[in-house]
Each structure stands twice: as structure tokens, then as C-alpha cells.
Design brief:
The complex is a heterodimer.
Chain A lengths: L1 H27 L7 H19 L3 H23 L4 H21 L1 H4 L12 E2 L2 E2 L5 H23 L2 H11 L1 H6 L4 H27 L9 H14 L4 H15 L1 H4 L10 H16 L12 H11 L3
Chain B lengths: L2 E12 L2 E12 L3 E6 L5 H8 L7 E6 L2 E5 L4 E2 L2 E2 L6 H6 L2 E4 L11 H8 L6 H14 L1 H5 L10 H13 L5 E5 L7 H18 L2 E6 L2 H7 L2 E6 L2 E7 H6 L1 H6 L4
Parallel strand pairs in B: 3-10, 3-11, 8-9, 9-10
Antiparallel strand pairs in B: 1-2, 1-4, 4-5, 6-7, 11-12
Helix pairs in contact in B: 3-6
Chain lengths: 306, 252
């Protein structure tokens, strides 16, 4: 039972990474993208194939997974980011499905529906991070979450964060302030994609096998759910949202009621959560994080010569 | 006087509809030039074309001796070279747009909006100084600096949009209907500020207005647009006396 709780925590961490990425795309950039499952899959398969077929160590595959998903982020970002709102959602949804179908049918590389098994466990200075003994793995996952959180938080308070907020609020006004909206949108997309690739990499060494069935559209929806539930434009909230959604989705197993509650139950619950949130708390549990860009400048004025 | 913005023979189409037909205009440095015309005459399209939001079918636009927009597929020196600067690059050249309907960043505070206006300025001290100058120039903005822009009145938002545009230190400011939907007293106030911006800060102003009387009184030169064509061009004082203008735009 406690062991099971650890598993939920690990999955929360993996999904939290994806949710952080989704938050920079949707929460900051205001772009409704539904591709996280696709990038997740690309990261997973990059690690799976490179370790089993080419004998790379897990740590070497991490940057590869990151760069590969970032590259695909750029590739689909450039043409689709001209689209807005629901059109973007549909186009990106298509990409996720393409990835899954390629994985399912490209037998020579991905072994199709059979998937890839026997992925080696990651080593760190001679210490094996065994996913069956969950503590070490849990620590590793949350170290990554911490790093990603730190980087994203810094980015959100930088010029890039300001530019993205402006683009979200009004594209034409943002452009006439001298902001290149395409650059910043694509950049957000690449960031979101790469962190999802990282999550995929971790997922591969956690379950030690990958199959295309893991990376369904449902994953993207869950990630979006986490961001909306926590609060758009707030990275802490995304992590919280990831935890809550994971807790809910494993609730039947956790309470030993899986024989009574059908597995479809969680999908009903996700839908219900989204509806209830939209009606009573559209800003999410924690709401948007207020970043006061003006503060720094105001302080520097006092310290200035005037 | 030096020519700052010159629009040469440009045309813009929306599908089959010709929004602008061979429009030519010139804005001299230090002037306030206004463009008046009725709804749907193509005024806003012209501004959009200047900032690179609408592709040109023919003609070109030059700012400070440098071509910023050219029609697609125009042949230059024997080579087909479409060259259209994107809006952000045009902004970087020193053209600031105050868009129609203000388009403020409603969820940001006044101060944050002004900071966004100075996005291309890297010198923090300069940003701080300019902001201070804006708060002196528009005292109401100073009083509301920590307030969300959403909570400002229409006139205050318009002033904020102008201040935001000035934050980049532009050489030319384009104003799209600054008087739209505002009370006459507020409009008078805003036009007074526009005049001060021009006289004190030496910013060239290109003003697009439906309110012909206000615009012509405030400006030095005026153009009249009808159905996508320039039909009249004269000193503003003469346009105010012009029979046709009096009848069609001043309701006399």
C-alpha cells in the first residue's frame, strides 16, 4: 500500500515534468496544444532504442531524448503556430496520433505493438537506480522536477516570460512593441516539447519497457487537466495538479476498490473536474502567479542618480 | 524639411476587394499629419500596411530613407525579391503604433504595460527615466501605476496606450482613432497631449481619425481618403475651409 503510494508519487513527478512544459505553452503562451503525449513517446523511444540497441547508458540518452523532442517541437511548431485556439489544438492532436501510429507500425525500429522490453536500469556512480526499490528512483525523478521548475521559473520572469505574456494578451499589440511573436511561440513550444521528452526518458527506465499503447491521446488530456486544475501560468500549481490527478486516477487501486469501480471511472472524473473548475474556479486551484516586472525597475530608479 | 515616411503608390486587397488603390502619402519629420475619411474608406488598412500587418499588392513604403515594405513579387534589379519586414522589426526602426481600440494588455498593471512598451530598450535606467517622464506627462497614470489596466476608464486606457507607444522612444507615432468612443472633453485632452508630444518631444505624428474637425485642427497637413483612394491633400487649415470637406466631414 505504501509502496503503491510511492509509485503514484513517481508518476506524479514524471507527469509534473510534462505539466510544466504544458504550462509554459498553454499557461504562459496561451497556445492550446495537445501534443505532450507525442513528445513523451519520442523521449521514451529514444531512450529505449538507444539503450537496448546501441548500448548507450541512460544518462547519455537523456540529452538525446531532449534534443530529439525539441527538434520535433520545432518541426511541428513552425507550421502550426500560425493557427489559433481550437485549430491549433486539432493540428497538434493530429501530431500526437501520428507519432503513436508510427511507433505502432514501424516494426523494424520500434518493434511495433510488441514494444521494447529489457531496458537497462540507470546507473549512477556504480549505484543502480532500481525502479522496483522506489526510493532512489523517486529522488531522481524529483531532482529533475526541481531542476525543470527552477529553470522555468527563471524563464518566466525573464524577457521571454514577459514577451509570452504579452503575446497571450494581444498579439498585434505585442508585435508593435517589437516582440517577434513567432520566435517566442516556437521557443515556448520547444521548451515544452523537450521537457516532455525528458519525462518520456524517465518513464522508459521506470517501467523498463515501452509500448505504443502508453502514449495515447488520454495522456495529453491528463496533462492539460493538470495544468488547468492547478492554475494556468503557475508552475507550482502544475506540479500540484499532476499530483492530484495521479492520485485520482489511481484512487480505485489505492483504496482496494478496483473490483468495484471500473477503470473508466477516472475519465468521468476528469471530465467532471474540468467542468466544475470552469464554472467555479476558472483560474485553477492556485491561480496565475503574479509576476511584478515593474518592481525591479522601480527599485533601480530609487537607487539611481535622480 | 526631411521626409520621414513616404508611401509610394501602394495597393492592398482583401481577396477581390481593393482596400487601397495607388495610395501615396508623405510625412515630413516634425509634422502632425492627419488622414481623415469615413468608415471603411481604408484608413486602418493603411496603418496596418505601414506596420507590416497587411501585404502590399503594389508599391512600397520607405521610412527614413530605408524601404520597410515592398509588394510581393516586385522585381528589383532583375531579381524577384519580396521584402517585407515583420511588425516587430518595423517597430524596432522607430515606428510606434497606437492600435485602434487601444489594445492594452488588460491583465497587466499600468507599470507593466509601460515596461512592455520599452521591450526593445535594454537600458534599465533609461526605462525608469522614461516611465517617470510618462507619469509626469500623464499624472493619472502615475496614480494608477499599480492598477490592472482593465480597471481604467476608456480615456485613461487611451492615454496609457499612447504612453506605452512612447516608451520605445519612437521617431514616428501612428495613432489609429485615438478619439474612438470617448467623451468630447476627454478627446480634447488627448489631442492636447498629442500636440505636446509633437512640440516638446519632437515626435512626428501620423494621425488617423474619423473626427475630422479635431484632427484637422490638431494637424499641419491633411489627407482625405474615400474608397481606398486619396481624394484630397492640402494644409489642414485650408482643408478646414474647403467646401467639399466642410460639407462631407464637418457637417456644415
Amino acid at each position: 500500500m505504501f509502496n503503491f503510494f510511492l509509485l503514484i508519487l513517481i508518476y506524479s513527478g514524471i507527469y509534473a515534468l510534462m505539466a510544466l512544459g504544458q504550462n509554459i505553452i498553454t499557461g504562459y503562451g496561451g497556445l492550446l496544444s495537445l501534443t505532450q503525449a507525442g513528445f513523451f513517446a519520442i523521449g521514451s523511444y529514444a531512450t529505449a532504442i538507444l539503450t537496448t540497441r546501441f548500448g548507450w547508458s541512460f544518462w547519455a540518452t537523456l540529452p538525446a531524448a531532449l534534443i530529439l523532442s525539441a527538434f520535433f517541437g520545432l518541426l511541428i511548431g513552425l507550421p502550426t503556430l500560425r493557427l489559433k485556439g481550437d485549430y491549433l489544438a486539432i493540428a497538434t492532436l493530429g501530431f500526437g496520433e501520428i507519432v503513436r501510429n508510427v511507433l505502432n507500425n514501424w516494426d523494424s525500429v520500434t518493434r511495433g505493438p510488441m514494444g521494447i522490453q529489457r531496458i537497462p536500469m540507470p546507473d549512477l556512480f556504480g549505484f543502480t537506480i532500481n525502479p522496483y526499490k522506489k526510493y532512489a528512483f523517486l529522488v531522481m525523478v524529483f531532482v529533475f522536477v526541481g531542476i525543470a521548475y527552477f529553470i522555468f521559473q527563471r524563464l518566466a520572469r525573464s524577457r521571454m516570460g514577459r514577451a509570452l505574456s504579452a503575446v497571450r494578451e494581444d498579439e498585434i499589440a505585442a508585435q508593435s512593441m517589437g516582440i517577434n511573436i513567432t520566435t517566442y511561440k516556437v521557443f515556448a513550444f520547444i521548451l515544452g516539447a523537450s521537457v516532455a521528452g525528458l519525462a518520456g526518458s524517465l518513464q522508459a527506465v521506470f517501467s523498463l519497457s515501452v509500448t505504443p499503447g502508453t502514449y495515447t491521446f488520454m495522456v495529453s488530456v491528463m496533462v492539460l487537466c493538470m495544468v488547468v486544475l492547478g492554475g494556468m501560468g503557475n508552475f507550482k500549481a502544475s506540479i500540484l495538479g499532476a499530483f492530484i490527478i495521479q492520485l485520482i486516477s489511481y484512487f480505485p487501486q489505492l483504496t482496494g476498490l478496483s473490483s468495484v469501480i471500473p477503470p473508466q471511472f477516472k475519465q468521468i472524473l476528469f471530465g467532471l473536474i474540468l467542468v466544475v473548475m470552469m464554472i467555479w474556479r476558472p483560474q485553477g486551484l492556485l491561480g496565475r502567479e503574479e509576476t511584478r516586472y515593474g518592481k525591479k525597475v522601480a527599485k533601480s530608479r530609487k537607487g539611481g542618480a535622480r | 524639411m526631411k521626409e520621414l515616411l513616404s508611401i509610394d503608390d501602394i495597393s492592398v486587397s482583401y481577396g477581390n476587394i481593393k482596400a487601397l488603390q495607388q495610395v501615396s502619402m508623405h510625412v515630413n519629420e516634425g509634422d502632425i499629419v492627419c488622414l481623415i475619411g469615413a468608415n471603411g474608406s481604408g484608413k486602418s488598412t493603411l496603418l496596418k500596411a505601414i506596420v507590416g500587418q497587411e501585404p502590399l499588392v503594389s508599391g512600397s513604403i520607405t521610412f527614413d530613407g530605408e524601404e520597410i515594405c515592398r509588394a510581393r513579387n516586385e522585381v528589383v534589379k532583375g531579381v524577384k525579391r519580396p521584402r517585407i519586414l515583420t511588425t516587430d522589426l518595423i517597430a524596432a526602426k522607430g515606428i510606434a503604433l497606437v492600435p485602434e481600440g487601444r489594445r492594452v494588455f488588460a491583465d497587466m498593471t499600468v507599470e507593466e504595460n509601460l515596461d512592455m512598451g520599452a521591450f526593445l530598450v535594454r537600458d534599465e535606467q533609461l526605462i525608469a527615466d522614461r516611465k517617470e517622464a510618462m507619469y509626469d506627462f500623464f499624472p493619472i497614470l502615475g496614480a494608477r501605476r499599480r492598477q490592472k489596466t482593465r480597471s481604467l476608464s476608456g480615456g485613461e486606457q487611451q492615454m496609457m496606450a499612447i504612453a506605452r507607444a512612447l516608451m520605445s522612444g519612437p521617431r514616428l507615432i501612428l495613432l489609429d482613432e485615438p478619439g474612438l468612443g470617448l467623451a468630447p472633453l476627454v478627446i480634447a485632452d488627448i489631442f492636447e497631449k498629442i500636440d505636446m508630444i509633437n512640440k516638446q518631444d519632437k515626435v512626428t505624428v501620423f494621425l488617423v481619425e474619423q473626427n475630422a474637425r479635431m484632427a484637422l485642427k490638431a494637424s499641419t497637413e491633411g489627407y482625405v481618403m474615400e474608397n481606398g483612394k486619396i481624394v484630397l491633400h492640402d494644409a489642414s487649415a485650408s482643408l478646414l475651409e474647403n467646401e467639399k470637406v466642410r460639407e462631407a466631414y464637418l457637417g456644415e
